[in-house]
Each structure stands twice: as C-alpha cells, then as structure tokens.
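Methods: example folding runs. The two proteins below were folded one after another, and each record is reproduced exactly as written to the output file, sequence line first and structure-token line second.
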Amino acid sequence: MRGATMDMVYGTLRRFGRGDAIITALAHRGVPDDRVRALLLSALYAIESGAYAEHVAVDQAVKACSLIGKHAAKRFVNGLLRTFLRERASIESDLAKDLVARTMHPDWWIDGVRNAYPNEWQQVLSAGNKHPPMGLRVNRRRSSVADYLERLERESMHARWLEDFSLLLDAPVGVDRVPGFGNGEVSVQDVGAQRAARYLDLTDGQRVLDACAAPGGKACHILETAAVDLLALDSNPIRCERIRQNFARLGVTGEIKVADCALPEDWWDGRSFDRILADVPCTASGIVRRHPDIKWLRRPGDPARFAAGQLRTLGALWRVLAPGGKLLYVTCSVFPEENAAVLDAFAASHGEARRLELPGNAPAQLLPGDDNDGFYFALLTK
C-alpha cells in the first residue's frame, strides 16, 4: 500500500505540467477548487500510468470526491475524465505542441536548461521526469565490493559495480530490504554524490570540515575513506541528529556541531582545515526526480538568489582553509548561475585561489542520467 501511494504522489508531481495542461484544456469554466484539481491530477496519472484500468480510475476518482468533502464535484470530475478518454487523440496532438506539457517543467526552467546545454537540454529534462536510480556505497571498513555483490546474489538481488565502492541496484527497493543496511555494511547514496569524498584527496590524519553535512552521507563516506579528524556542521539540530544516527549505524566517529557554516566566528576554534567539503544549498535542479515538487515550487529568481548565498558561504569557508589545503565546492544543480558563475565571481575577488583539475580529468558538471543524479564539482586550493 505504501509503495502504491508513493508512486501515485511522485508520479503525479513528476507529470504535473502535463496533467495541468489537460485540465486547463478541458475545464472551460475552471476547476471548483485546489482539492478537486489535485484529485484530477492524481486520476489522470492513474489513467496514463497503465497501472489501473481506465474505468476503475474514473470510478475511484468520483468516489473520492465524497472522501474529500466535495460531493458536488462528482459530476464535474466524471465528465472531465470521460471527456479526456473520449478525446484523447486530439488532446495528445495539442499537448505535443506545448513545451511545458511535453517536458513537464516550467517554462523558465526549460529556458535555463536549454540555454546552458543546447545539445543535451532534452536529455536533462527527460531525466528529471524518470524514476531515480538507486545507488549503494559499500562500507570499506566492514565489507568489500566482491563480498557484498555475492550477498546480494544470495538474496536474489542484482547490482552493477560502477567505480570504487559504488554499486547500482538493477531494481530499487525499500531501504529496509537492502541487505546489511542496518548494521552499516552499506549505505544508500547516489553514485554521483559518492564522487565528493574521492575528489577530496583524503589521507589519514587530516583535519576535515564537512560544512553542510546533513543528513551525513558524504561525511560518513569521508570517515570510511580515511582516518581523519572530521567536523560536521549543519544549522538544523534535527538534521544534525540524522548525522549522529548515520555515524552510529556505520561505526564511524566525528564531531558534530549545530552551526551556520557561513558564520565561522560562531563555531571555529582557530585551527585551519586541510580539506573542506562545501556542499552548499542550491535549487536542487540536478536531483529534481527525487523531489518532483521542487521544479514547481522554485521561481525564476531562485538560481541567482542561491548563488549570492553560495558566494558568501564560499568566502567564509575560505578563511578557515589551511594554506595548501583543498576545498571542494559542490552543488546538486544544473544551472550555471549556481556553479561556474559562482566560481568565476569568487576567483575575481580571491587571487590566491587556484582551481585544480578533478581526478581523472572529470568534467565539473555531471548531468543527470541513467546511473547518477546531476552535480557540479570544483576543487580549489589556497
């Protein structure tokens, strides 16, 4: 039941642009209210998903009107859905001409991605509408990739080894079904996100700062990779508790503080860091398939607004980086305003900052695809 509910919610949100266009085209006098609109969006997804018979989806939507206290909307809901089924071919033809309906992204978002990636924009938008891949990170302190792959096979589960300690499950499952998750043998983490710890060039004994650490996936990966002195920061105490829980599950140890990383005077003890991970807040446009409401909640000015905060944070963290140390700037965004533009602005005011090649000459921008979400990485040294 939970799985079906999650599919309905996420599927409806992913296809919101299409569903909204259908409703607008058919509801000539408007929709009674937002609750009825939400019901129609869900019903349209149910019909188009193929998981439900068309007549069942219509019947259940009509019955649901009573459950949400909208008895008077039954006739309207029934009529709109049956009209859609009856005129589906012509509606499909019209939707194909509507870029928002076709790509299921807001127009300003489409423009931003198309301008940034003239050759890949359709691929990027398409990836944002798909089910996300399920990446695993084997805890090298408790298992090996070979041993864990054998364990998966014994459980009739299959995964591909991609790189380092990264695996990709052939079929996503609930976390509670992932073998060894509870005792810390493995973590669920996007394969793209796992690059952060590798790019930091970690060695035992370093003093490391994870500046925006919650929920702790990258911090845990750092501690699995090398015996470092780690400080993990997050401004939200509830999210800091999640970091503690992840540390305990994986058997790793680090200091955790509730603090705003952009205000070093509130948390810094004066000792510089050899490595800093600055996984800064952003539009999350590279992971929108995991949070499909984001693309409809964000506004055109948000990339620039986030960029201003990212630049301030980068400047604050630069103060606590040791000479010769390395800072990895990370976002889960595909918008250049939050990525290359921020690095350009920072370089213009910090002449001592030098940008390094990523290991393996990897590109800074990792676009979302079948194996990974979208991320941006920039490695700086002082």
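Second run, written to the same file directly after the first:
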Amino acid sequence: MTTATATVVESGMNGANTLVDEDRAARWRAVAAATGPADRETAEAGLRRAYEQAGLSAPERIVWAGSPLAATAAVLLLTGQEERLPREVAERAADMLRAAGVEPVASAVGASVREAVRTHPWARARRRLHDALGPAGWAGRWALAAAPLWEVTRALTERVRTGVVEALAPDPDSGQGAAVRLALLDAVLGQHDAPWLAAVADGAESDPLAGLAAVARAAGWWWPYEKAVIVAERPVELHRDEAGRLDRGDGPALAFPDGFALYAWRGMPVPAAFLQQLGELTPDRIREEENAELRRVMLEHYGYERYLDESGARPVHRDETGVLWRIELDGDEPVAMVEVVNSTPEPDGTHRTYWLRVPPQVRTAREGVAWTFGVDADTYRPERET
C-alpha cells in the first residue's frame, strides 16, 4: 500500500509492519552527508552501547582523530607497523594517542573487535529481515531505502580510502600500501554506513543496531579494539555535483578539520595546485597539458563553446540538425561536439544554442544528434523538434 507520502508498508518480523518511507531515507541521506564537528557525547554513548550489545566490556579509552588519515596512522602504530609511516605522521599519531591515555605501541589496545561489534550484528539483522520479508521483499526494501544512497556513498568511501593510501604510502603497490589498505578495511564507517542502516536499523531503543546507528548519526569512521576505540571526526566541507560526485573548482571537495582534504572536478581526482590554474586558462595552455584527463577537466571548466571560438576551430559538417565541430588533441582522442539551436524561442524571442558532446567517430551532425537519442542517423526522423 502506498500513500501520498510514499510510505511503503511491508510485512515485518513477528507480524509487525516495517515502514520504508521517503522521510526515513532522507534522514539517512542527511547522516551520510553531514559535516561539522562530531557530537562526541552522543557518539561515545553509542560506542559503549554497541560494545554492550555485542556482549563486550565498554572500551577503556576513546581516541578522537581529526580525519580518517590520522585515525589510520594511529591504527598502524597500534598494530606494530610504525615503520610503514612517514616520521612526522607517526609522531603526530603518537602524540594524539598519548593525549588520550593510550601508549602508541603494539597491543596497547588489544585485538580488533570489529566482527563482534559490526559484522555479526549486521549479518543477524539482515538475516532476520530476509527471513521475514522473503528474497523479493528484502530486495524491494533495499531498493527503496538504501540503493540510491549506497551508490553515492560507496564511491565517496572508496575515494577517501584512496586518498589515505596516497597520503601514507607514496608507493601504493608496496607493502606499505597494503598495510594502509588493510587498516582502512578494519574501520566501521560511521556516517557512511548510512545505506545499510537505512535498510535494516528500525530506530527503536531495543534495536540490536541502536549503538551502531547512534555513532553513525554523530561521527565519522571508527576502529573498535578490546580496550579502546579510534574515532575520526566528520568532514567540515563536502561539495558534490548533481550526480553525487565530489566536485569543486575553487578548493577541496572534501575536507577534514586536521587538514586532510580531497580535490575533485566532477568526480575526477585532481591535484590541489591544478585548481588554482583554472581561472587563468587559455587555449594554448589547454593544448599544452600532457595529462589527457586533466586536459578534459580544463576543457569542461573553460567551456567547449569558448574553446572552439578562441582556438579558431572550424566546423567539419553542417546540416539541418546542427553543426558538427571537432577538436584535435595531441595524445588523446578528438573531442566532437554538435551545436544545435533550440527551435522553441525563449520569452525574449531568441533561440538558445546547446552543445552536445558526441563520440569522436561521429561524422555528421545528424549522426551526432541521433546518437544522443540512442538511434542511428537513418532512424532519426523527429516529427517535431522542441
């Protein structure tokens, strides 16, 4: 049954109803995208609750780190891999641990308890729901509550992991890179666990996932050990495009309070210094860029129409559908664009021009426009253009 508020009522455990609605999904989307200081009091209460629900004694120490990078460095110290870290990073991590009352030495906090705290409770909760709803019901619940958020959050978490590896392991294919990746895989993702919590956590005080959900609402990634927990702050800035990809042209797209930051343009990682050049681009500078991916970013930022105009490009084909332009790039495939004019006039009587990016093998304007509709040039015969 679906109401005007898009609430779906499913058969739940013990005959109860389980609600999956837009409000619930929106609340967890907000958790995943939250920025600003962690609610430390709430997070620490959630951590203790998660340990209690896992049948474990509460952690003796809770260590707060300024980012997943700083937390990962602390984890490497506590697992006896300080030689894997740059000296300055290791010293900062050691100071952070000592300030929280934890000696920065191997085995100071005991073994990881991630499986007991996160893996097993999640598996049990999923199994209960799967049994209650059946395969189709579970799939529907995941699709309604979690799937769209999962796609965005998964890409974000992988980008964070990659950024940490790049910062801590100059040679990511070395043993150093492997050690950093393993440390990252031992994290509970806090706010970035929002997709599966949206699908499984019921929000009740008696929910076996109540502790995990409380931490997710209040903090970032965390690493649980027998005697201590390492918890990372949430980011202070998060900038994304309409597709959910990291995207910012004038600063970090994702930034943490201790300075760890990631830079990206429409989802593509870029160096911080690269963004500073974007306001001073010229066609010559774009052509001189040797990195093909960065050159594409430059073209997008500069504007294809402007580049075509200022670089003296010439059209390669023209017909009743538009004009096909081609930009030849050294060491990269050509950029093909079709210039089309909207047949419907604007309120002021003018007609807006659009630029359509098409595959480089396109040879005619009609073929390019047809490609944007998923048909071939012979099939493309619109009865009416708008």
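Comment on the second run: Residues 1-20 have pLDDT under 50 and may be disordered.
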